[in-house]
Amino acid sequence: MAALIEDFALVGDMRTAALVSRYGSVDWLCLPRFDSPAVFAGLLGADEHGSWRLAPAACVAGRRPAARRRYRGDSLVLEQEWDTPEGSVRVTDFMPPRGRSGSPDGAPCVVRVVDGLSGTVRMRSVLETRFSYGRIVPWVRRESHAGHRRPDRVVAVAGPDSLWLDTEAGTETYGSDLTTYADFTVSAGQRTALTLTWQASHLRPPPRPDAEALLRDTERFWDDWTNRCTYNGPWRGAVMRSLITLKALTYAPTGGIVAAPTTSLPEEIGGVRNWDYRFTWLRDAAITLASLLRTGYHEEARAWREWLLRAVAGDARNLQIMYGVAGERELAESELPWLPGYENSRPVRIGNGAAGQLQLDVYGEVVDALYLGQTSGLAGDDDSHILQMKLMNYLESNWQEPDEGIWEVRGPRRHFTHSKVMTWVAADRTVRRLSRLPGEPPVARWRALRDEVHREVCAKGYDADRNTFTQSYGSRELDASLLLIPQVGFLPPHDPRVVGTVEAVQRELNDDGFVRRYPVEQDGPPGERAVSGDGLPGGEGVFLACSFWLAHDLALIGRRAEGRRLFERLLALRNDVGLLAEEWDTGHGRQVGNFPQAFSHVPLIDAALRLG
Ligand SMILES: OC[C@H]1O[C@H](O[C@H]2O[C@H](CO)[C@@H](O)[C@H](O)[C@H]2O)[C@H](O)[C@@H](O)[C@@H]1O
After folding, report:
1. Number of separate domains in the chain
2. Which helix (H) or strand (E) is 47 found in, with range?
3. Is any atom of ligand 1 closer than 6 Å to the C-beta of 277?
4. Whose CA is nearest to atom 7 of ligand 1?
5. 560 inside domain
6. Of 14, 34, 35, 532, most Cβ neighbours within 10 A?
7. By residue range, what is the domain housing residue 124?
8. Is the CB of residue 191 below 6 angstroms from any atom belonging to ligand 1?
């Protein structure tokens, strides 16, 4: 059985990422890119779907977790320690940022350094490589180098992939039952390392990684990066960990940012809400960019803006709400029937059908991010100005269409209030932007659009009897996206309609003090599961982003102490290494959904900035 979601920590190289459990097992890793097929998919099944376990031999056999674990300072270098009757050891896991000095020629590599802390401990590595999301058992062979005193290399090959296991003197490797074992002992003060390097199978073998040099270089990389953070408020540790996570979700060659490095971690254990998040959503990436800008990370923000300009180049009618990390458009959704799914949550999906949806809010989020870039002095504004005008022209003729909205509902399109509010945001930021430019730009046209949208939202998206905005025009349902109304400046925080909406969401979408994104039907007809308003059967956890938005809003409407209390409770939901999935299951007290999730860590940062 896979570990709990919160049992995992993240390591990555800004092109892909691995999940390492507290049991010492790498259970998720896609190579060479975030969206490549997984070589370890044990997360969505069992060890036999691919995993790499490394721990004291007795703990591997008995699945004993590490006694302690932490990231080394502000870095993505993970340390886990086991205590055994024989002694104690530390395993340090990381992925070196690619293409830096010492890194094997840009080849992705997982490094596992083992330090003896006390006594003499027998260690075991159990490697089950299963290419193509757990389906393909590779050919495994040993490569020895005549005349070299270094141990043999073990290489697993299938189709386009090869994976090279390197060990150091004193480690014995052998194969059995489609598994590669490596046994060694480590005594106090000794250190040894195992590395696993991916290489396209038609290329020459990758050089042996130098684990020591890579560790030094990786630490230096994270030191330099985290020293650039400008946030020094009361929650620096949580904010820094969130920023490091966002950086780890960035695909360095292009600046694209994945929503999460996983697919199909369920929003309900045993349920069907299992989606692939290894893509760049304009919405998620736009809000990420804003958080990065607010905390001093202009370089990343600029890289994403350039990614955006390339990805959406062309006719605005062809804009997608999400792309591959290099701007790819074909993200067809399919199922992997051979994977049982995380705790039997089926189906496991790859690709994402939401790519073909109309989500009008995305225009507002993108224009807002461009505006923030423009007003924060990001260099190279010209193209972003052209893009902004293209988006506005499209929105002007299409904003009155119904859409699938921020939550990507799979039911019929609706006039979502939040989508219209974000149309207002796009027009508002355009008016503000143009008013700053010299000459006589056509501000009047966008001002008229802005005011028309505002009037319509207040007339059709607001329920005067209940003093709350509603999920869609004319509906009685609430929606947590309405919490963004004061944050984007659509109405001032103290407007009675805003206060009424915040209070209504807090009251009616409440679950244990946290917030659901919308009402989800729990009961179906006898023998059947109900289909919810979002077009899907079953339920889901409370949505962490929405819960952070509530904490943020409470501060905006003058209930700061209450906001801080909620914020602190939310921080307590992070796992022991500071990571959050998309949702929280209040019934079982555990994280659910893809992990770690940018859309949770971004509102954490924004709320910290507001509440601090
Ligand atoms: O709820 C159904 C939808 O769930 C996913 O979308 C969610 O994740 C996105 C990425 O973080 C986020 O931008 C969106 O607001 C969320 O609702 C899934 O990707 C969709 O395919 C699915 O329809």
Report:
1. 2
2. none
3. yes
4. 407
5. yes
6. 34
7. 5-214
8. no
